[in-house]
Amino acid sequence: MKCLFIVIAGVSERTLIAVKPDGVQRRLVGQIVQRFEQRGFKLVGMKLLQAREDILSQHYHDLHKKPFYPNLLRYMSSGPVVAMVWEGHNVVRTSRLMVGNTNPAEAYPGTIRGDYSVHISRNVIHASDSVEGAQREIHLWFDRRELVDWDCCDHSSSYQV
Ligand SMILES: Nc1nc2c(ncn2[C@@H]2O[C@H](COP(=O)(O)OP(=O)(O)OP(=O)(O)O)[C@@H](O)[C@H]2O)c(=O)[nH]1
Ligand SMILES: Nc1ncnc2c1ncn2[C@@H]1O[C@H](COP(=O)(O)OP(=O)(O)O)[C@@H](O)[C@H]1O
Ligand SMILES: [Mg+2]
């Protein structure tokens, strides 16, 4: 029974969150990170990068026939993005709810898109939309060695005088 618990505890769900170029340029990174921390998720990977076109075209492969696809790639290349991996119970579904509708005009106030954006072509943030998609996107954006496993600790037990 103890072994079973350890196995289950070891496969906590992860998702890819990316602050898009407009979010970085508008200095929204800190507020977005704060929302995920406050909700109780654990940051296990984070980097600022100018996304390469091959990564973006794989990332948005499902949309490559859409009329807005060229504009989407231009948007995502228009400055650095902050890519993050967050971990926790139901993190994929919960982070989609925190992010809000793809179209900010439909996104509820209180969601990230509902609070910080007005137009679908500048919607501030990306969040994986399924557990399988998250695994694929994390693998695409991060090297395994860039992800850090760490335990929450009760600091009071390590205070020293
Ligand atoms: N310019 C433009 N961009 C769009 C349109 N539809 C979607 N996009 C952009 O393409 C992104 C990807 O679309 P989706 O994957 O369907 O939406 P999403 O899953 O909410 O957004 P991501 O988290 O970025 O994947 C959106 O977040 C928008 O930035 C559109 O009609 N026009
Ligand atoms: N109709 C649209 N017009 C412009 N951009 C769009 C449109 N649909 C999607 N996008 C862009 O493509 C991104 C990815 O789309 P999608 O994966 O469907 O939504 P989400 O970002 O909510 O996961 C969106 O975040 C948005 O930036
Ligand atoms: Mg999407």
TrEMBL record:
Protein localization: Cell projection; Mitochondrion intermembrane space; Mitochondrion matrix
Gene Ontology, cellular component aspect: cell projection; mitochondrial intermembrane space; mitochondrial matrix
Binding residue positions for ATP: 20, 68, 96, 102, 113, 123
Membrane topology field: Peripheral membrane protein
Pfam families: NDK
This protein's UniProt keywords: ATP-binding, Cell projection, Kinase, Magnesium, Metal-binding, Nucleotide metabolism, Nucleotide-binding, Transferase
Residues in Nucleoside diphosphate kinase-like domain copies: 12-149
Primary subcellular site in the record, as a coarse category: other
Residues at the catalytic site: 126
Known catalytic reactions: a 2'-deoxyribonucleoside 5'-diphosphate + ATP = a 2'-deoxyribonucleoside 5'-triphosphate + ADP; a ribonucleoside 5'-diphosphate + ATP = a ribonucleoside 5'-triphosphate + ADP
GO terms (BP aspect): CTP biosynthetic process; GTP biosynthetic process; UTP biosynthetic process
Enzyme Commission identifier(s): 2.7.4.6
A GO MF label: metal ion binding
PROSITE patterns: NDPK, NDPK_LIKE
Cofactor requirements of the protein: Mg(2+)
HAMAP family the UniProt entry points to: NDP_kinase (MF_00451)
Family: Belongs to the NDK family.
Name recorded for this polypeptide: Nucleoside diphosphate kinase
Organism: Acipenser ruthenus
